[in-house]
Amino acid sequence: MTTIVCVAGARPNYMKIKPVMDALEARGAHVVLVHTGQHYDEAMNGVFFRDLGLRPPDRFLGVGSGSHAEQTGRVMTAFEPLLAEIAPDAVVVVGDVNSTLACALVTAKAGPLLAHVEAGLRSRDWSMPEEVNRVATDRVSDYLLAPSPDAVANLRAEGYRPDQVHLVGNVMIDTLLANLDRARGSDVLTRYGLTPGEYGLVTLHRPANVDDPHVLGGLLKALGEIAARLPLVLPVHPRAAGKLADLGVPGGVRLVPPAGYLDFIALQDRARIVLTDSGGVQEETTALGVPCVTLRDNTERPVTVEEGTNVLAGRDPERVVAVAEAVLHRPPAPRRPELWDGRAGERIADLLLAGGTARTRRRPTDAPAG
Ligand code: UD1
Ligand code: UDP
Q1: By Cβ atoms counted within 10 A, which residue in 42, 184, 214, 280 is the most buried?
Q2: Given this model, what pLDDT does residue 370 score?
Q3: 3-class secondary structure, 289
Q4: Structurally, how many domains does the chain consist of?
Q5: For the CA of 71, the nearest atom of ligand 1
């Protein structure tokens, strides 16, 4: 039997790994779910297991918070002996968090084949820790599983071989589509006194936006101006909680705890506009056809701008307000990118189970040209 280790550790990982695990198990693979413990609060972690119907982790590394080096190092130190003990045929990592890179580096030296789900995304912004994690994870992966044609183009331009790169679609949208009816049954709007189509939803957690009080203050000023015409609700990421409390938020902006998955999908689905610096939220709003204003200067997900509902606003307060007003006045037409169809997990499982294992498939030794 093929044994595959699936890694998750932080909020955006759970919805990405679930459809891959389900499809692998449906095809008879033995899946071992390893949770690194990068996120651990009930609101950042536990609620997703319940909402998504994800089984409890088979192994828990319990690394917790720390600097990049501390966190990455703790995951590597804990994952290495585990991998030796389990001796899987392959390891699947998702996304771009520190847990992703840490487990990728250990796997690359240990022997099992490594599959990266969400390969090829590039912001080209090296100040983002996620950009370092993405590029380095791709470099040591055997299977580069790309969500969109732009990601394939990036990988080809970097010199990866065609047989490593696979356009599989977007696993996050698998989970969104599988749970949309349940999310629409959430009572979160009633609990927060929100009227469908008459509020905006905000998330902020990128270090570039929330760590510097000057930048965060400017964004809050912009949100205050938008809130003068449309009430805003902001589920607070723990990274931003202290700074938001110190700065105080303008009237019309309501802070609420981080939302569970079903509640958050319901909040996106019924929002008139979403303002965010999240990666996954840019994708989910595109799939839902809800206008999204991204509070960043760049995006590693350009397909959501070119073939979705996303508009890049940057972080200058005046520009953010102008872009939000333009979007409220003339919302982008809903469109959905190719292969964001709810079947990415199945395509990934088919590839992984057809491709042989570390024991039967020679690991490529030729380096990328780029
Ligand atoms: C991490 C990811 C980021 C992802 C985000 C999703 C990296 C480098 N960053 O950022 O790509 O978009 O998760 O949400 O991997 N904290 C809690 N409770 C928790 C988890 C964290 O209070 O359950 C607080 C701690 O103070 C911690 C801080 O949040 O120091 C940051 O957590 P960390 O996992 O280091 O980075 P995120 O900002 O969450
Ligand atoms: N999300 C959630 N509750 C929230 C904010 C986000 O359930 O309060 C979900 C969101 O629907 C998406 C994922 O978390 O599925 C995105 O994670 P996050 O924004 O933390 O990370 P990123 O995608 O930026 O790495």
Answers
A1: 280
A2: 44
A3: coil
A4: 2
A5: 35
Q: Is 24 in the pocket of ligand 1 (CB under 6 A)?
A: no
Q: How far apart are CA 273 and CA 128, in angstroms?
A: 25
Domain of residue 35: give its range.
3-170+340-354
Q: Is 205 a catalytic residue?
A: yes
Residue 363 falls inside a structural domain: no
**Ranges of the chain whose pLDDT falls below 50:** 359-363, 365-367, 369-370
Nearest atom in ligand 2 to the alpha carbon of residue 268 is 11
Residues 11 and 148 in one domain: yes
Q: Is the CB of 201 under 6 A from ligand 2?
A: no
Q: Residue of the nearest CA to atom 28 in ligand 1?
A: 239
Q: What percent of the chain has pLDDT over 70?
A: 96
239 CA distance to ligand 1 centroid (A)?
6
pLDDT at 362: 47
Indicate if 85 and 158 belong to the same structural domain. Answer: yes
Q: What is the CATH number of the domain that holds 91?
A: 3.40.50.2000
Same domain, 111 and 147: yes
- Is any atom of ligand 1 closer than 6 Å to the C-beta of 65? yes
Q: How far, CA to CA in Å, does 168 sit from each of 66, 143, 153, 300?
A: 33, 11, 14, 17
Q: Would you say the pTM of this structure is higher than 0.85?
A: yes
> Do the bridges between strand 253-256 and strand 273-276 make them parallel or antiparallel, or are there none, so unpaired?
unpaired
The closest-lying atom of ligand 1 relative to the alpha carbon of residue 129 is 8
Ligand 1 contact, 289 CB (< 6 A): no
Are 82 and 142 in the same domain?
A: yes
- Write the pLDDT tens digit of every residue in 120-149: 999 999 999 999 999 999 999 999 999 999
Question: Atom of ligand 2 at shortest distance to CA of 97?
Answer: 25
Of the candidates 205, 214, 237, 329, the residue annotated as catalytic is: 205
Best probe residue, ligand 1, of 16, 67, 97 (max atoms within 8 Å of C-beta): 97
2-51 per-position pLDDT tens digit: 999 999 999 999 999 999 999 999 999 999 999 999 999 999 999 999 99
Chain-centroid distance of CA 267 in Å reads 17
Q: How far is CA 111 from CA 150, 161, 179, in A?
A: 30, 20, 36
Q: Is residue 89 domain-resident?
A: yes
Same domain, 159 and 29: yes
| 159 CA to centre of ligand 2 in angstroms | 31
Q: Please indicate, yes or no, whether residues 17 and 166 belong to a single structural domain of this protein.
A: yes
